[in-house]
Amino acid sequence: MKMRLFTLTVCLAAMFLVFPLSHRSSAGEGPVIAHGEETWKERKSSHFIIYYKSAPPDFIKSVEEMAEYYYEEITRNMGFTRYKNWGWDERAKIYIYDNAEDFQQIGEYAKWSEGVASSRERVIRSFPAAHGFFDSTLPHEMAHIIFREFVGFKAKIPIWFEEGVAMYQEKARRWGANDTVRQAIKDGKFISLNDMTAIELSGRMNTEMIQLFYAESASIVNYIIDELGQQRFVNFCRKAKDGDPFEWVFTSVYVRFRDLDALNKAWVEYLER
Ligand SMILES: [Zn+2]
Q1: Domains of the chain in sequence order
Q2: 148 near 138, Cβ under 8 Å?
Q3: Beta bridge partners of 96
Q4: 14: CA distance to ligand 1 center in Å?
Q5: Top mean-pLDDT range of 80-89, 162-171, 199-208
Q6: What pTM did the predictor assign?
Q7: Ligand 1 midpoint to CA 250 (Å)
Q8: Ligand 1 centre from 163 Cα, in Å?
Q9: How far apart are CA 243 and CA 256, in angstroms?
Q10: How far does residue 140's CA lie from ligand 1's centre (Å)?
Q11: Between vectors from CA 83 to CA 81 and to CA 84, what angle results, nearest 5°?
Q12: Are 178 and 219 in contact (CB under 8 A)?
């Protein structure tokens, strides 16, 4: 259940990135904020404005402290050293809904998630009881925004890469992912990177497959950043900005791989070592 909730959380952020316009027009930012505006209290820090209703002040204080901590941690983890500053009116907004039910009012898709991120608006929405709020949800959603801002909105990034980067910030997730993928290889259920790239996630996919998709995403991005090197990862991010096809950009930075199949092979060999 834990894994399932986690899986669906990350799925949601991906869908925001895939369908930003439809989300904004149907469940859009505007009406949600305007509607409940008078009920939101706010707390401001250097890089964040936290909006909340009845959440306890000490929880909100922790949100502020942890968000500021992750802001440094994530940019350092990914090697984004000259990352633009979220100061003053550039601050990110974190909406803390009172509970799951309150949170779910923001849209249909919120029913199966614990947190959502909108990179363009630099907004995160979640609620205190969200699974692993401080260890998973918060760093995951922040990583989505930081990564997207760094690569830019023209960059063509497959969902597995985007989700893998977000999960890279959840330390607990990094441990289990490789084992899950090894087991899938043994069971003949492994999804190749080419298939991962082609997959369009949807609510109709079965849970087991979505879980495997996320475990593989975490595992391959761990491999890319930790094994192939942070500097190369940063170079890739810079080069992706122009919006060229993913595989082309990837292989032009990671020159030892001719294509995604070659990366797939190296990753599987690494796991089987
Ligand atoms: Zn995600």
Answers
A1: 6-151 (3.40.30), 159-271 (no CATH)
A2: no
A3: 52, 126
A4: 5
A5: 162-171
A6: 0.84
A7: 21
A8: 5
A9: 22
A10: 6
A11: 150
A12: yes
d(CA 163, CA 13): 8
For 51, phi and psi rounded to 5 degrees?
-105, 135
Distance 16 CA to ligand 1 centre (A): 9
SS3 label, residue 66: helix
Strand partners, 126: 96, 115
**Which of 125-139, 149-163, 196-210, 239-253 bottoms out in mean pLDDT, i.e. has the lowest?**
196-210
C-beta atoms surrounding 22 within 10 Å: 12
CA distances from 256 to 234, 253, 262 (A): 17, 9, 9
Distance 13 CA to ligand 1 centre (A): 4
- Ligand 1 center from residue 181 Cα (angstroms): 19
- 222-245 in b/e form (b: 16+ CB < 10 A) is bbbbeebeeeebbbbbbbbeeeee
